[in-house]
Amino acid sequence: MGGCITVRRGVPVLLAGIGLFAPAGVVGCETMRQDFDDFGRGLMPVSPEQASLWMVDPTDPDNRRRGTVLISNSPFGGQDVYVSWYRDSVLQENDPLVKAVAISALGRHGRPDDALRIAVSLADDDAFQVRWEAAKALQRLHNAAVVPVLIATLRLDGEESDIRVSAAIALGQYPQDRVFQALVAAFDSPDLSINEAARRALETLTGTDHGLEPEPWLLWYKGVKDPFAFQQEYLYPTYHREETFLEKLAFWTKKTYEQPAPPAGLESSERRTYQDTDDRAADETGG
Length: 287
Hints:
Elements: E1 14-15, E2 20-21, H1 29-43, H2 48-55, H3 61-72, H4 80-92, H5 96-109, H6 114-119, H7 128-137, H8 147-155, H9 161-171, H10 177-185, H11 192-206, H12 214-222, H13 245-249, H14 274-285
Helix pairs in contact: 2-3, 3-5, 4-5, 5-7, 7-9, 8-9, 8-10, 9-11
């Protein structure tokens, strides 16, 4: 029998024995069809082909977001054809959530020059998520050309704390005087999370720790010949989240947890490891 189902107010109806309850009132044909489509899509395993089609769907930003997440987390998410799509999305996407996941994907799979494409999004006036993903992505790509915009973000009093913290972390890979001064200036922020992120970045850059007050850092800085002589290895932090139901159905996506690692473009010869620091200290003390 065709037609829509009419439900009396306040009476939940079990639909087709699958555990979905219709809301009180009248259930329209389009609403029910959408509910069943969404439910059915959630139960069906998602193939790489389907995820790829979602990623480029010009009509549905939710599909583009889902597809980008699935592809970028797959074992083949770093292939050139997909990285090119991430780049295009970062520059051209209008939906902020899709743009945010594209930025995250490009930070994960891109090259050092992609940092310049991503850095532009730190100035996005409308979307917190876009700016936050941009700041985190710049932790994973090493390009000194983005230092000024990272410093500007860290100094921006009106910016969200999470974004300023992420910018401070990203600055920990650049042993420059202007970076040192900007991180020390961040101790003047009333936000303890920003203070602590600046302290950790300074500790990575200098191999020493002088707390959360600017004066001890500035006094130490004036008294050393090379403040970055004992620079420690910079590793970008990793961020874990619960796997979505859709990702669990995508059996082909990568089910491994990332470990902190050096950013793309930061060669081993450009950074000093903890072992290097220990060796220099031993040489200076005669050990």
